[in-house]
Structure formats: structure tokens, C-alpha cells
Amino acid sequence: RKCLYCNFVSYPGKDYDIQEYFKALRRELEWYKDHELLSEYCPHTLYVGGGTPSLVTEELILFFQSCCNLLPFGSFKETTIEVNPGTISFSQFPQLYQTGFNRISIGVQSFHDEELRTLGRIHTCEEAIACFQAARRAGFRNINLDLIFGIPDSTLVTWEFMVNTAISLQPEHISTYNLTIEEGTPFWEQMHQGTLSLPDEDLQFNMYTSGIATLTQAGYEHYEISNFAIPDYQSQHNQIYWRNEEYLGLGAGAHSYLKGRRYWNS
To answer: DSSP letters along 6-26, please?
Structure first.
């Protein structure tokens, strides 16, 4: 199911389309190869995300194994995959590592079970911590944790607890995102019905600045608006966007920026 705040291009309950989707993805990749774009460019990073790719971990692994001649993992400096606790078997982390992924981004969002239920997440705090630990055991030494502040009914105390819990796990990277209410989501409807109890703007601002202070004091560099990293672990992929450099997007709803043109898939 989709989270109550999510407006990503993602479709719940379509397991029957998974195989066809990866066939289409392969055809798209081969199109770029046939037009010699993959030989003209030498990608430095790979990022698998936007939704919940960990729902199809097995299919992803098979896809990359079959496309090793099109996407040589050996040439990438950074290979990231997003995972959500509750949608990945911990035994799959070693498979991802062996496939060539060297960075994991875990969608924790909150370390409070009540807040997770409010957001519509399907995992618990305990499962999120276990997910992080499983990634560590598999050999990942570059892990990001996503956190959200400004969750309905949250307080500065609950937010500070979340930040400190994340720090205690010692990830290399932490992202702190302000909850935004996007049109077309259940939260949007609740907000316009007056049933969504959001922290006021002053409290959300205090959450943001408190997070900055706590994370920087713990040794994390605040290198982007919402991103913090220990030295040498800034997201190489995200910085491509910030530097206005080119990138190729593959899949449903993916955006690209090549040869001075921006375009996207429907």
C-alpha cells in the first residue's frame, strides 16, 4: 500500500506486472545502448529508488545480473538502493552486496511506532533497527537513514529522540525531511477536512534547527538542506543534481537531463 503522504509514481497491488515491467526496463536500457549513449557517457553513480524497490529485490538482482554488459557495476563509484523495513528479507542484503551495491538508504521515517502508524508505514521501530543491523552484517559500510519531522501530533521531544536514536546506530549518512502535504494524497484530504493535526510552523522550524545542531555536534556535516554525512560519505549521486550535472533516468516516471534537455517518462 502507499503511505498516506506519498505522491511518488508507485502502484500498490500490481505484482502481476513485475515481470513485464522489467522487460520494458531492459528494452529502454537497450534503446540507449543502440543509440550509443551508454558508450558516449561514463556514469559514476547508480541510484535505485523512488518508491520501494525492495519490494522486488529478487527481480532487481536478476535484472542487474542480466544487464551486466549494459550497466557495468565495476565502473560505478557509488551504487545505492533504497529499502524499506518490512518490504525486504534480511537474507537479501548479502545478495544486494554481492550484486555490487555499496550503499543502502533505509526509509525509517520515525523511531516511534505510533508515528509510523500515522504515516501509514508497515514497519515498526524494532524492525527498522533490525533492518539497519542486517545491512551492517551483510557488509554495507555506507548506510543512510531517512527521517521525517513535522509528523502529525509529533513534538520536539519525540523528534529529538528520533535524531538521537539514529545517531546511536552510527550510520554514515542521515537525511531529515520536513513532511510536505502533497495534493492527491490522503493527508491532503485530511488537511482540507481539518482533521490533520500538524505541528505549527514555529515548531517545525525548531525541529529542523534542533536536528541540525544535534547532528553537527555529533560529527555530521550539514552539506545539503536535508542531508548530513560524516566526512567523505556525502551522497555522490545527489550532488550531481545539486551541481546541475547530467543524469539518465530509467523506468516509469523517471526524469533525465542529457545534452541540455530535460525530459521524463510518463
So the answer is: --SS--TT-GGGHHHHHHHHH
Q: Cell numbers of 212, please?
A: 541540525
pLDDT in tens, 140-170: 999 999 999 999 999 999 999 999 999 999 9
Q: Which amino acid belongs to residue 169?
A: L
| C-alpha dist (Å) from residue 54 to 75, 80, 89 | 23, 12, 9
Side chain identity at 174, as an amino acid letter? I
As a dihedral over the C-alpha atoms of residue 89, residue 91, residue 97, residue 99, rounded to 10 degrees, the angle is -80
- Residue 25's nearest CA partner among 197, 215, 250 is 250
Q: Which residues contact 73 (CB under 8 A, 6 or more apart)?
A: 46, 64, 79, 99, 100
For residue 210, how many other CB atoms are within 10 A of its CB? 16
> What CA–CA distance (Å, rounded) separates 80 from 46?
6
pLDDT band at 98 (very low <50, low <70, confident <90, very high): very high
219-249 per-position pLDDT tens digit: 999 999 999 999 999 999 999 999 999 999 9
Between strands 227-229 and 173-178, the pairing is antiparallel
Q: Which neighbouring-strand residues pair with 224?
A: 227
Exposed/middle/buried for residue 180 (C-beta within 10 Å: 0-12, 13-18, 19+): exposed
* Cα dihedral 196, 197, 203, 209 sign: negative
Do residues 171 and 132 make contact, with C-beta atoms less than 8 angstroms apart? yes
The 8 Å CB, 24+ separation contacts for 184-191 are: 184/7, 185/4, 185/5, 185/6, 185/7, 186/4, 186/5, 186/120, 187/4, 187/5, 190/4
